[in-house]
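G.,

No rush on this.
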Amino acid sequence: MRAGGAFFSGTRQIKKIFFSRKIRRARLDIFRAVYELLNRMKIFFSALAFTIFSAAAFAASEKPQPDALKIRVEKDWLLLPMKGVENYSKTEIFDASGNLLFSAPALLTSGSPDWRAPVNVSAQKGSDIFLAGAKGAPSVFQTDNPPWTKPFTDRARPLFHLTAKEGYMGSLCGVLHFGGKWNALFLNNPYSMNPRAPYFAARAVGDDLTRWSYEPPLYMPQFAGGKFLYPLGGSCDIDPATKAAVLAWRFSDGSLSIGKSANLKSAEFFSKIESLAGGEAAPDIFFDKEKKLWILSIGSDSALKFFASANLKDWRECGKFDVDFDAPSLAKTHIAGGDGSLKYVVLNGDGRYLVADFDGEKFSQISPAPLRIFFGDIFGVRFLRGVPDGRLLAAAVVSQPPDLLRDVGQSFVNSMSMPFEMRLADASVGLRLRASLLREISEYFGDATDALGMPSMNFRSNIFTLPDATGNYFALAFTFNTDYLDAFVLGAGISRFGYNRKFGTFYFRRVETIRNIQKLSDPLPSGYLNVLVLLDSYSYEALFLNGAAVVFIGDSFINPEQQIKIGAKGGMYVDKVSRIPILSTTQKQRGEIAKRRLDALERERLANEQRAAQPSLQPALQAPAQTEAQSATPASPAKKIKKFLPSKK
């Protein structure tokens, strides 16, 4: 017992010492040290494993894969086959030494392509390269002259909207009237139908902002050091002194560069603004003719800054607004019907805007908060530059569902909206932008017909299909009364937008999913409302004719039997709906064609009259033979001889 008691007594003493405060504190220190050591060992071995894996992956990526396609380069360009329904693959090109020459996610296919995307391999001419990333053997073409100007396919391409030739269309980098034509510069990735790098600065030209033709890109991505250098966005204006186009672009390395182009076929970037390097925000450049200053506008998620320069090299900050304008575009305009004073308007890429003043030293904000003029499926809104008649024009990129367009076999996604004419109005609620229809598109309108099927329509809380408005490539002019409704909806196919009068908001729905809700700066007025809808194959634009709003929907509207619907919650009186076909020729062109046809018919009529007035030689030659053949009495030998005898005279 004593021995056992001594044992337990000793154990208690040991426990008392071991669990004493000092020992507990020392024990905790030991535990912390061991835990820290184990944690550092874990980090070390994780980093070691990651380094080994990365090195192995890098080594693997730097070598041609066993199933890579060997190509003998004989021409300057490869044309890679692309197909919208393919899965994206990491497409890489190596030289014979294993150096990486090209790397991008692409819709590379081994089957029948929807289009072909160019890759510059001129530096490897005469040597072997290896193409990796495709399952099977893709049919790769070579050429010295890529088909920049012609789309590979042209299925259901919009009638009066600009798209990328093939692939993804990104933000506008400037639309300006230059060299006697309209020039549209925009980001384009021909390897992808989704927003992915790298981007070309694509170019299209046109005469009237509705019909475009493609030109070679102004800038192509440069691959070096295992990555591309490409533009992220920007804008342009015209230098009044040299008549050259001035470009301000943000590049993928974060640099902000100023360049010039004499013909928009190539550009020379001569200045990098180091103080504005970093980030991805696209700059806007604008020449203020009255102040004789170049203005750079650069935004972010928290602030909009302005910089001024007289020589495009030395820049000073001249204003800052605390607004989230990440893609600004600046313009200067008179107040419509005002005293001739000029104001500045900053239009953001999402359709919001601010009115401002500038005294040559500092910008000041007039609008207390951002307002909105463009709604719906848009991005990259820009003012147009160099407009010959001084109009203020603005356009956006209409966003379309990439996966839908891939599924329907299309070779492009997104389109530039119709430009709209803008004016600054002094409304009762303050200075407001107002939009109106571009007069160039109205010249393509045909004769209007009734689309309602009845003189007028009065209904309550219902949706109706317009019987004589199906398909696409037309405009619809609605006139309806809003006094007794809570909401209304206008739709085409499976997409529609609606207006909630109580909350003063537009909402956008596809099938049964609400995609977006946006609040109007000022509620739509009560009473009669006029709306003009423009329906192309992949876009739907609704202009409220009071100018307060333009609504954009991007979707597939290629179904020739798709229906147009109008509905309301509450009472709605529809006064009139007119369907106006949008034709492929203007009224002037149709008149010239009709005149040429009439002239041709007149020339043909005169020719027929002249032929009828001339004596016919063929019947005269045939008459003696017919008479002789029909004669029952043959001529006597005396008569036959007599005609050969000399005359008595």
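When you get to it, here's the other one too:
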Amino acid sequence: MGTALELWNPPLPDIGPPLQPGEIDYPDIPLPWWARLRGWWRTRDQRAEAAKLERKAAQDKRLAAKRERDTAREFAKMDARQKRVLSREMRLAKARISERLTRLEFAHWRINQKKYKISRLRFAQAAATPASLFFRVDTVRMPRGRGITTDALSETNILHELSLACGAPVSTYRHYANGFWFVVERAGGLGAIPDYVEFDEVFRQMPKSAGPLDFPLGIGVNKRFYHVDISEMPHLIVAGATGFGKSVFLHNMICCIIQRSTPRRVQLVLVDLKGGTGLGGYAGIPHLWSEVCDATDLDDEEVDPNVVVTTGRRKRREGFRVQPVIYSRREEMVPVLTRIFYECERRFQAFTRAGVRDHAGYNRRHTANPMPFMLCVFDEIQNVMLDKKERGDAERLLTDIASRSRAAGVHLVVATQRPSVDVITGLIKANFPARVAFAVTSPQDSRTILNNGQAADLGRKGMLIYSQERNFNKCQSAFVSESYAADVVDRVKSGAPAKIYTSVGRLDLLRWVVEEQDGAFDVDQVHAHFAPRGVKYEDVRVALRELAVEDVELDGSVYRWRRRDKTFVRILDDGRAEDDLEFETIARWALESNKARLDFRAVHKQFRKSITQDDLKALLKSWDDQRLEIDGDMFVITPGAGRKPRLVTRVEA
């Protein structure tokens, strides 16, 4: 048995195994005994590699701290309003990402003291710039669970779900030192939902294999194109407050269907309860449904089957047709629904005689004379549902037709600007699984149509949420002007083929102005250029008023209307105009012509054509203590004091 000292401090074992053939024998570095004891199992090469990794980690930590300081400095340059907006957007985006990931089962549920507790995905750091929001995932404390990895978070379908939740494109950024980040592009970015979409833009993207009742919904995040087939819905409810695009959406649907499908494939029943002001322009198109009467005679008088009757009691006989019209009176709603109901019964009898089950099977057997689809559009249905006399019969017929008409090839589209429970009743909702919601006036109306309050937060014309089978897609619907719809109706009546590039949209005007006029928008010159293509002078003025309201995205760039020189200028990523005065421009002028002084009056006198006084004051104030390299020398803007002006001072690099 050894001494007490030997027991307390026993002899250390040898450091590592003996060298293998070919290894280099590095000289021993004297280390304290605790360091030798901690790494006694490592070879000399392993210890050197571990030290190298530690130095690299320390360097990466210093770089990450520098990036955080730079982000904080950039955040400090913003005014108070921009900071409040960014902070609010960061809180909302963080909460939406966490909630959507929890729904996608990127969380761990456990029972603690007979209570369920959820371990959600945590964020270790958040940062913001004028262009994007950044959230670093805490990968050290990831929720326990199979499949909860950073690779799973980077999958395309997960990022698409997060983009829908945030209303903006979401991507990932991975760095071996900085970790795993979610990047949320702010509204107005290149991948965000556009503010305006032309009908031609979505019409040209329709696939050739699309069905006769297929039409475009619009453009979503990351320029994703959405189109749906009514025959698969099979019925649709369209709801939204006045002025947010509900009627334009119906024009979008009808214009696409009548251009892509012949009257032998699709027939329309249009009921416009606004007095015919909304859908009255489609009167006379060959797609309107003409009723075939084959039921028992209602009276005993003889009727010539070649005579078309539009009023009075009709003789129902084989081969007898009723002249197609657009119904615009409230009293006509129930009779129209009754005739649609009899049409469904007539089709079911035809299926029975042919020995088939549905509309598709009948058309497969009768390819020479197929049975057309029947699309029934009811606009402003609340005018009937709020009438005590018509409400009961209308609701009963609507639900009866909707519950059985899919097999007959009859599909219903119901539109209303009042999606309350007394208009969109429970029976109607149960038989109309597909919904399109524009902006509504209250969260209660949004819950009626979507079972959540998302539609109350839209607040932009043309922005819609499409819901089916608990899937929600947000996109910007295409705009169809009255002149374009009239042009489509004229072509359909004359039998001319569909033209995709007939209309000239406001983005076409802006593109020509930017490319040919350097952004200068002169109404007379623009009209003179586009007049041969049918553009009116008033259309150019209206387009200018619409473009001047907010920033416009065109071909991957954002343009803004500058009123003082009537020019559209390109906006950079930091929010400045492309032709704004640069730091280097003013600093060079001060060094060469003003004795390195940035006197406000002298600077404004020199550059008054390019900037206003208020903008120049804010610009000079934001440049205080900034450094700039000019011709290899480093300069800094020294703030003034009292009457002393700012100075451009040379400093050592």
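The longest strand covers residues 179-185. Residues 509 and 526 are 7 Å apart (CA to CA).

Enjoy the weekend,
O.
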